[in-house]
């Protein structure tokens, strides 16, 4: 791993600055990244002090005044080169993500590919930041709408996607003319640092002003600085609903803008008309992938009563084939949870299921004979949707099976949780699919037919409703959140008519 760190530009002393990158740190406290794979420390970084943060913001403000005037396609060219650098370092960065966070190597590589994809998307977007021309009611007048960059965009990311979520925000923000200050999870700082050094090399070659990309490291306090700072017009935060509420209140209190990507409690409806050869792999990957630590993880399977016993049996057989272990090893499906606190949350949820009267189709287990204390067995419980433990998001591989009789009932069960991120239905019945996607169907930001809840593509806007926060990132027109809208009216006549026909003679 030390060889990979070196190739990614991470050396024993991680403090410093370079062109385009602002990574200010004082030699005070250090933050050590410990791999959940084997419990071993990987490396440490110095944490950001309030004084450091002030220098970061001032540098970013100065950079913005230059960066916003670069033509958008020129900014897009810089992002294109970042995509190429990611292609060259995909294996190294994906391996680091896997080892530092604990997801399988395939998922680590997939996360870097997602970064590459969003770079490609952003490059095209850099030539499409278009507004509207609007018909004016006044003669010889032209109305139009245009979009301008906001300024500093604060990004607070979570451990489960330590690099991809930053890229969703940063690549779009950069082509829009914004600058970015990133506060990564304190559990995965090295993956973030690797991205910063990669970007810095590209920035240096293109004479990008220092401060276009900045990194601050530390605990939740560093994120609070961004949330409370009126110089940061937009904060994009990914994490728990509890954290998101705190960010939303702080940002709204100063009338700033926020993009919130928070908890999910995602369900798959398995209809009587479902093809189980499609449904089973979708459920298993959705529930066990990333050890249940995705916001889009499948937490509930709502099954038609006529297929319940069949699905339960086939699903149990599929779970028996899951291999838990070192995520860097080929053929391993499930790696560790992020830390021992996550294991405790898994155990607490299991006890709540038992206390509620639930039974396990696949028994839970904390796996003791492993290199770290962070490994658990993915489990399946028969449950009721209204149980408190089912209503909350447990960031662990626990799947709940729930029966239904009529599709309208299944949709009501799907929607009857506080969260509203991702959802899907497996059916070959056209009317069922269309009802699920209609206004009377899923209330989630993502609704799929015959695919699972995980694995969103970057081309569509990503985000959810209710306690998921309502934010949208990545594709479609999510770029508009990183810009400010301006309506312009140009009078090219020799008269000054007023709107609405008002007469105001002087």
Automatic annotation (TrEMBL):
PANTHER family: ALPHA-AMINOADIPIC SEMIALDEHYDE DEHYDROGENASE
EC nos: 1.2.1.3
Keywords assigned by UniProt, alphabetized: NAD, Oxidoreductase
InterPro entries referenced in this protein's UniProt entry, alphabetically: Ald_DH/histidinol_DH, Ald_DH_C, Ald_DH_CS_GLU, Ald_DH_N, Aldehyde_DH_dom, ALDH7A1-like
Entry protein name: aldehyde dehydrogenase (NAD(+))
Entry's family note: Belongs to the aldehyde dehydrogenase family.
Subunit structure: Homotetramer.
Pfam families for this protein: Aldedh (PF00171)
Main enzyme class: oxidoreductase
Positions of the catalytic residues: 261
PROSITE patterns: ALDEHYDE_DEHYDR_GLU
Gene Ontology molecular function: any one: aldehyde dehydrogenase (NAD+) activity
SUPFAM superfamilies for the chain: ALDH-like
Chain ranges of the Aldehyde dehydrogenase domain: 26-487
Keyword Oxidoreductase: yes
């Amino acid at each position: 791993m030390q060889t990979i760190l070196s190739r990614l530009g991470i050396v024993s002393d991680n403090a410093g600055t370079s062109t385009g990158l602002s990574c200010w740190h004082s030699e005070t406290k250090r933050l050590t990244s410990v791999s959940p794979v084997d419990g071993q420390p990987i490396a440490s970084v110095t944490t950001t002090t309030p004084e450091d943060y002030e220098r970061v913001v001032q540098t970013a403000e100065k950079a913005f005044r230059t960066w916003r005037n670069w033509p958008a396609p020129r900014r897009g060219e810089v992002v294109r080169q970042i995509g190429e650098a990611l292609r060259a370092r995909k294996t190294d960065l994906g391996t680091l993500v896997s080892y530092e966070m604990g997801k399988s190597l395939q998922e680590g590589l997939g996360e870097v590919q997602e970064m590459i994809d969003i770079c490609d998307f952003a490059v095209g977007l850099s030539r499409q930041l278009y507004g509207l021309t609007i018909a004016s009611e006044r003669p010889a007048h032209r109305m139009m709408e245009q979009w301008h960059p906001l300024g500093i965009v604060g990004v607070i990311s979570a451990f489960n996607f330590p690099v991809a979520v930053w890229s969703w925000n940063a690549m779009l923000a950069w082509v829009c003319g914004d600058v970015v200050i990133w506060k990564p999870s304190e559990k995965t700082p090295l993956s973030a640092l690797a991205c910063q050094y990669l970007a810095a090399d590209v920035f240096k070659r293109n004479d990008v002003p220092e401060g276009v990309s900045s990194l601050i490291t530390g605990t939740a306090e560093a994120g609070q600085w961004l949330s409370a700072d009126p110089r940061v017009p937009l904060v994009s935060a990914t994490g728990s609903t509890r954290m998101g509420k705190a960010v939303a209140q702080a940002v709204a209190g100063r009338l700033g803008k926020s993009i919130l990507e928070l908890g999910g409690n995602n369900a798959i409806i398995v209809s009587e008309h479902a093809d189980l050869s499609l449904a089973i792999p979708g459920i298993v990957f959705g529930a066990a992938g990333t050890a249940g630590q995705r916001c889009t993880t499948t937490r509930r399977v709502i099954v038609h009563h006529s297929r319940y016993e069949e699905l339960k049996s086939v699903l149990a057989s599929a779970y028996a084939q899951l291999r838990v272990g070192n995520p860097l090893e080929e053929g391993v499906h499930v790696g560790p949870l992020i830390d021992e606190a996550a294991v405790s949350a898994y155990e607490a949820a299991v006890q709540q299921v038992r206390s509620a009267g639930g039974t396990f189709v696949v028994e839970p287990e904390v796996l003791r004979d492993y290199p770290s204390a962070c490994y658990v067995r993915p489990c399946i419980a028969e449950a009721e949707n209204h149980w408190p433990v089912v209503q909350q998001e447990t960031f662990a591989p626990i799947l709940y099976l729930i029966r239904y009789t009529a599709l309208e009932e299944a949709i009501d069960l799907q929607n009857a949780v506080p969260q509203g991120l991702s959802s899907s239905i497996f059916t070959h019945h056209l009317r069922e699919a269309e009802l699920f996607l209609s206004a009377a169907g899923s209330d989630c930001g993502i609704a799929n037919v015959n695919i699972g809840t995980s694995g969103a593509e970057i081309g569509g806007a990503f985000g959810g409703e209710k306690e998921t926060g309502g934010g949208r990132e990545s594709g479609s027109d999510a770029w508009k959140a990183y810009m400010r809208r301006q309506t312009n009216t140009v009078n090219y006549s020799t008269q000054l008519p007023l709107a609405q026909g008002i007469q105001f003679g002087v």
